[in-house]
Hints:
By secondary structure, this protein is mainly beta. It has one domain (5-115). Helices cover 12% and strands 40% of the residues. The strands form 2 sheets. A 4-stranded mixed beta sheet has the order 1-7-2-3, covered by helices on one side. A 4-stranded antiparallel beta sheet has the order 4-5-6-8, covered by helices on one side. The longest helix is centred in the C-terminal third of the chain and has 8 residues, at 78-85.
Amino acid sequence: MNGSFVERLRKDLPEESKLYGIEPQQTARDIMLEFRTKDGLRKAYAYSYMTMAVYDPEQGITIQVADVKVNIKGRSLENIFHYLLANRLSYVQEDFSGIDTEDKELFIEAIEIASNDNEQ
């Protein structure tokens, strides 16, 4: 890994990933965060309605957006969480291959979206 997360954030070029996108300009902020699932579903929610974000290394990331709870399950999600807190995360997507190599690299197993009435 090249430097700490803060050092990488300060660089002009963001780190690349097939599982998430970030706002490339350090001073810019995304307005919405998009979630992409293996079945082709794409949902986006406004950052301004986000009321909670929790990172648990064992459970993943939980985000409360208005009356919707989003759970991102996987491994090595810490950088995604930091971009989320900085409003720079543009999208997150499940690994379409579904193959977990069980190494230390980022892997997004599932994105679960549930509203108060349990509708997706």
